[in-house]
Amino acid sequence: MKTFTKLTLATALSLGLGGAAMAEGIFAPNLTYRTGPFAATGIPLMNGQKDYMTMLNERDGGIGGVPINFEECETGYSTEKGVECYERTKANAVVTQPWSTGITLQVLPKTNTDMIPILAPGYGFSPMANGKVFQWAFNPPASYWDGASMIMQHIAGGDMSTLSGKKIALLHLDHPFGKEPIPVLEAMAAEYGFELVLVPVGLKEMQNQSAQWLTIRRERPDNVVMWGWGAMNASAIAEAVKTKYPMDQFYGVWWAGHDADLKQVGEAGTGYKSISWSMPQPDAPVMADIKQHVADTGMTEQEDPNSVFYQRGIVISMILAEGIAAAQAEFGTGEINAEQLRWGLENLDISEARLAELGMTGMVPPFSTSCSNHTGHSGAWMLEWDGEKFVQSGDLLQADRSFIEPLELAQSAEYADANAPWPINEDCE
Amino acid sequence: MLYRTAGQFKTSYRADQALFPIKQDAFLLGIVLLCAWVIFPLTASEFAFQTLLTPILIYALAALGLNILTGYAGQLSLGTGAFMGVGAYACYKMITLMPWMNPVVAILLSGLFSAGVGVMFGIPSLRIKGFYLAIATLAAQFFLVWLFEKWAWLYNYNASGAIQVPNLDIFGLYVAGPQASSITQYYLVLAIVCVLTYLAINLTRGNLGRTWKATRDMDIAAELIGINLMKSKLTAFAISSYIVGVAGALFVFMWRGAAEPNLFDIPLSFRVLFIAIIGGLGSILGNYLGAILIVGLPVVLNTVPSALGIHVESALLEHLNIMIVGSLIIFFLIIEPHGLNALWRLIREKLIIWPFPH
Fold first, then answer.
1. Does residue B52 fall inside a structural domain?
2. Residues of chain B neighbouring A87 (CB-CB closer than 8 A)
3. Is the distance from CB of A347 to CB of A330 less than 8 angstroms?
4. Could you say which residues from 72 to 131 on chain A have a Cβ atom under 8 Å away from some Cβ of chain B?
5. A209 near A235, Cβ under 8 Å?
6. How many domains does chain B have?
């Protein structure tokens, strides 16, 4: 055992010499998954997040003059490791970025007592939008329910009554993440008179979906909506091509729009659509800054700076950075704490003008959060695969908030009830 | 010298049959209990409670349950994760259907459900043995996890399909849910684990334990000397599944706080099986040593570089960790194929006869 300890220490030491020393400043850890079954999709996202923060540290010396200590804690998408990381980092962290719906669910009830904001951009529990109930949780700029609503609007061509009599299949991961859109889609099916066929894909069947696609072939749905992640997307797209399902009737959530998944089918994937609240902009000034300060100095691991997921990672870090900046401005201090960051995330104002200032015009639709609105509901674009890359198809879509809001209120009230005593922020209207 | 047994005379049968006939053993146990009950809780941080103390105890309890079945009665099971799930879901249903119920009572009762399920899946063991039985318990594993996913009543029709532990209190003190403090949960887990371990030690030393061991060593011979194999095997399944079920309920209610069905999938079964095998099949102490190695060590290793003030990329650290723990497992199994418990027994024997080796 002694030899092994020595060996470990020696390895760690020799590796450590190359790395940077522990940075001081605002501690904003990220619970990454660069290992495990979802690593292929995780790595570009994590690279984007890290590179944006590195760029801020290099170019501006951090945010408001305070460097950001953007440390990573590896979870491999395992809930158990995620909780370990959360416990390890929570003492000094101003934010927790759980990066999986499973870890979010686990950590969510603890945030009220631990007083650390959860930032889950574009994932997590959709009713988190209700800031009165989920005071410490944020999922800007759009929730899964927003996504489901926007996809259905695109299918309907803007007029929801045309959905009547249609058959829509939901190909989803049989996991909390994949089940997220079901309540809202079921409510829509009842309201607009379409038939919803649920096609679950078990975690073990992700790479072998022949049974699911047989069901789809038998049912002949007008559209397939996919709520998939990781290896599931690549297999689904390959199966769709194999079974000759018309690709222009195939829609995916924003996590199902990974460039590499589509590149493997190339031309055959033309017409596949994925809703997305981020859009790669190769010519954006921020990309030039990242190239100058991060890529050219050899501090990035990213190969393709124009992939959808890498640029989405940059947007995610921008949201956190803006929250930190807002908190610094409000409280007049550089080294903000978790409670102050909560205020900052609640008062995000990512306007068109602010995006232009940041050099990120067109990378994300403008949105703003408030005390009762923790999502911002930015709306999203429909991206379409043209055989080589994702291109924007049509204008910005907006979720039908009047339809979703009552559901959010009901579900968040249910959650608060089940977890009573659960503090509710009565101050915000 | 330290472990000299000379001079410790037993003058009655009672003294000879004591749980710890050698003074030093009792003394060591006293130190361990003192650490567990007083010193750790006073010194541990929130991080240590959540990632080391509580999980090690819970995993050790699950391994203890499995060890009764596999180590003592010789029936190989690959369904431990699913039986833990039965305990967890049973506890969840009881708590949500009867909110007035005392959480500790609910946790102890939930073991009965998994005992029932365990006996049901244990019936094939009367006809099939060894690897074939392992396949039958594997069927239980797949079937039960499938059931947790598909039977929406089990998770109260929650949209995400996960179960979430509500805030539960005993006389105003929160013991489960987000409001509960780690130290309360730790003490509760520790108390249940201590009681069940004490019962398990005595069970395995008693009449039932001896029938199990006879069944394990050669079931035909056991039958010939008048042991009822059906009773022996099914009691092993029942008691083992009871302990595993309680461990499952503790796992979700006292530690995780939320669970989705695939948490109880086969990786969990394997993890518990590895703890039991590396700790030593047919031992009680081994489960704890195994849990420390498999559950505790990776967490400690992860903190080494930052404690030394050196920066290692998190993903790299994770890879290093997997390699180190993997090689340690191989290393320990090479120096002592019968597990850590046998290693400790060897050390103890050497200490007793020291300084005069044979």
1. yes
2. 46-47, 50-51
3. yes
4. 72-74, 76, 79, 83-84, 87-88, 90-91, 101-102, 105-106, 109-110, 112-113, 125
5. yes
6. 1
How crowded is residue B149: how many other Cβ atoms within 10 Å of its Cβ?
Answer: 20
pLDDT value, residue B245: 96
Tell me the per-residue pLDDT of A211-268, one tens digit each, with 9 for 90 and over.
999 999 998 999 999 998 878 888 999 999 998 899 999 999 998 888 888 888 888 9
- Which residue of chain A is at minimal alpha-carbon distance from B323? A8
With CA atoms as reference, the chain B residue closest to A87 would be B47
- Rounded mean pLDDT, A140-149: 91
Q: What is the pLDDT of residue A14?
A: 36
A121, with CB counted inside 10 A (0-12, 13-18, 19+), is: buried
- The answer to whether residue B23 scores a pLDDT higher than 90 is no
B37 falls within a domain: no
What CATH number did the domain enclosing B221 receive?
A: 1.10.3470
How far apart (Å, rounded) are the C-alpha atoms in residues A87 and A154?
A: 42
Do B299 and B216 touch, CB atoms closer than 8 A? no
Structure tokens at B118: 């365990």
Average pLDDT over residues A59-84: 87
Q: Which domain holds residue B259?
A: 47-353
Give the whole-angstrom CA distance, residue A396 versus residue A249.
Answer: 19
**B119 φ/ψ angles, rounded to the nearest 5 degrees:** -65, -40
CA–CA dist A362, A391 (Å, integer): 13
Query: Is-cis flag, bond preceding B178, omega within 30?
Result: no
What residue type is A167 in one-letter code?
Answer: K
pLDDT of residue B1: 65
Q: Which domains does chain A have, with CATH numbers?
A: 27-142+281-378+408-418 (3.40.50.2300), 144-276 (3.40.50.2300)
What is the average per-residue pLDDT within B74-94? Answer: 93
CA dist B20 and B37 (Å) reads 20
Q: Which residue's structure tokens are 């030593």? A: B280
Listed residue (A87, A118, A114) closest to A342, CA to CA: A118
In a domain, B20, yes or no: no
- Please say whether the beta carbons of A206 and A231 come within 8 A: yes
Degrees to nearest 5, angle at CA A333 with B45 and A424: 60
- pLDDT higher for B236 or A257? B236
Predicted structure pTM score:
0.85
| C-beta atoms of B263 and A79 within 8 A | yes
Q: How confident is the model at residue B358 (pLDDT cuts 50, 70, 90)?
A: low
Give, as one character, the DSSP assignment of residue B254: I
The beta-carbon neighbor of A175 closest among B260, B303, B310 is B260
Residue B254 in any domain: the answer is yes
Residue A22: band (very low, low, confident or very high) from pLDDT cuts 50, 70, 90: very low
Q: Are A45 and A302 in contact (CB under 8 A)?
A: no
DSSP assignment of B125-187 equals: GGT--HHHHHHHHHHHHHHHHHHHHH-GGGGTT-TTS-EEPPPEEETTEEEESTTS-HHHHHH
